[in-house]
Specification:
Blueprint (H helix, E strand, L loop, with lengths): L1 H13 L1 H18 L5 H7 L6 H7 L3 H20 L1 H17 L7 H29 L2 H32 L10 H12 L12 H8 L1 H22 L1 H12 L5 H19 L2 H8 L1 H21 L3 H29 L5 H60 L3 H6 L3
Helix pairs in contact: 1-8, 2-7, 2-8, 2-9, 3-4, 5-6, 5-7, 5-17, 6-7, 6-9, 7-16, 7-17, 8-13, 8-14, 8-16, 11-16, 11-17, 12-13, 12-17, 13-16, 14-15, 15-16, 15-17, 16-17
């Protein structure tokens, strides 16, 4: 078995289409957080605007709002008119809208450009997810789904670090980082093509389910809901961690940046192994393990009182998220019919950003009522419940014998 799996993983790395899709994946993380280090400077720069305090803080989540609104519609367009044109158009729009903050004259127009940037991200994420399903199957698809999480984490770490240096020079300068997408465009233009739409489902039962919308849409809807909840849990870290450190008496940008850096590094590193882990233990066990590790991380945050323990907790949460996150893409692509992969990718992308957007709306009242320890315990309990459900699912699959659902969720 080892001799058959290793070449498949190396083949993904060698495929220029995979490289182009990983480049696209790295852009999605860049969209929101790249300008975070520049926010205080932007507030000072546009201080004459009476709404500066509010608008500046909305610059980071603004793209998420657009992705949540437009991604499902982008999926329908991708299914009708093709993925290539959507991906290339999204990258071009990403460069234009992302870099617009360099020269736009006032804060409202900068905010509008961030909304347009979200539309670009919706186009990119939708097309990229559908193309992964079009180009790759089986182990290669699982491996690439894990690698793209690494690309997002490591790309985010590099881009945010660069933004910090650029923001020290000028609050407008971090907007130039969005121009990196223009460097990726030639390779995408060369290697990304719309494949012929022929049925290539690896399992007969999947082919049958793809032909009947009612046989896959309910499971897909549950998967989308689970991904939204997962991202809502995970986004507690970037939205609440700095305030938690302030209450604990360790507030500093370095402390928060270090913890989030460890979060991304641990997640990005473990995601590289996702394909091997998934093949070894199956989807249900991956969910159980990932949510269990996240639950332990949040418990440690609630109990710990030292920076080292907080860093370990951040690493655990990042690792757990990296284990479960790729499964949403691979499962959705296996569930959705070939002609509906664009729509599935769009809805999947929207669920990520809906979860991120809802996270502070739900977690902030919990902090006001129960404090940060209470928030972490509640979050841990939710993750533990999801891990328990996955354990029950894995046990049911083992007892149920061979079936179509085992083929989708169980150990291959």
């Amino acid at each position: 078995m080892a001799s058959t799996t290793i070449p498949r993983q190396t083949q993904v790395w060698r495929d220029p289409r995979a490289i182009a899709l990983l480049m696209a994946a790295s852009l999605t993380t860049m969209a929101n957080a790249t300008i975070s280090p520049a926010l205080p400077g932007l507030e000072r720069l546009f201080g004459e605007d009476p709404n500066a305090g509010m608008l500046v803080r909305l610059l980071v989540p603004a793209p998420s709002i657009s992705v949540a609104i437009f991604a499902p519609f982008a999926g329908l367009v991708a299914d009708r008119y093709g993925r290539r044109r959507m991906l290339l158009a999204g990258v071009v729009l990403f460069v234009i809208a992302g870099c617009a903050g360099l020269f736009l004259p006032d804060l409202p127009t900068v905010f509008a450009s961030r909304l347009v940037l979200g539309l670009a991200v919706a186009l990119i994420m939708t097309a990229q997810t559908a193309l992964i399903g079009d180009y790759f199957t089986g182990d290669e698809r699982s491996a690439l789904s894990g690698i793209q999480i690494s690309a997002r984490n490591f790309g985010g770490l590099v881009f945010i670090s660069l933004a910090g240096w650029f923001a020290a020079i000028s609050p407008r300068l971090p907007f130039v980082i969005y121009g990196v997408a223009a460097v990726f465009l030639p390779l995408m233009w060369k290697v990304i093509v719309d494949p012929q739409r022929t049925s290539s489902a690896p399992h007969a039962c999947l082919e049958e389910s793809s032909s009947d919308p009612s046989s896959w849409s309910l499971v897909f809807a549950l998967l989308v809901l689970l991904q939204a909840v997962t991202n809502m849990i995970f986004f507690v870290m970037p939205t609440q961690l700095s305030f938690f450190f302030a209450v604990a008496g360790c507030s500093s940008p370095v402390m928060t940046g270090s913890a989030l850096g460890i979060l991304m590094l641990s997640g990005g590193s473990l995601a590289l192994l996702y394909g091997r882990v998934q093949r070894a233990i199956g989807y249900a066990a991956v969910f159980a393990l990932g949510y269990g590790v996240m639950a332990l991380g949040f418990v440690l945050l609630a109990l710990a009182a030292t920076p080292l323990a907080w860093f370990v907790a951040a690493a655990a949460i990042g690792a757990g998220y990296a284990l479960v996150s790729p499964s949403f893409v691979t499962l959705a692509l296996e569930l959705a019919p070939i002609r509906r992969r664009g729509a599935a990718g769009g809805v999947l992308a929207a669920s990520v950003f809906i979860g991120q957007f809802c996270s502070p709306l739900l977690s902030t009242p919990l902090v006001a009522t129960y404090g940060y320890e209470g928030l972490f315990y509640i979050t841990s309990s939710l993750a533990a419940a999801m891990a328990g459900a996955a354990v029950l699912r894995a046990a049911a699959l083992r007892l149920g014998g061979l079936s179509c659902l085992r083929g989708i969720y169980g150990k291959r």
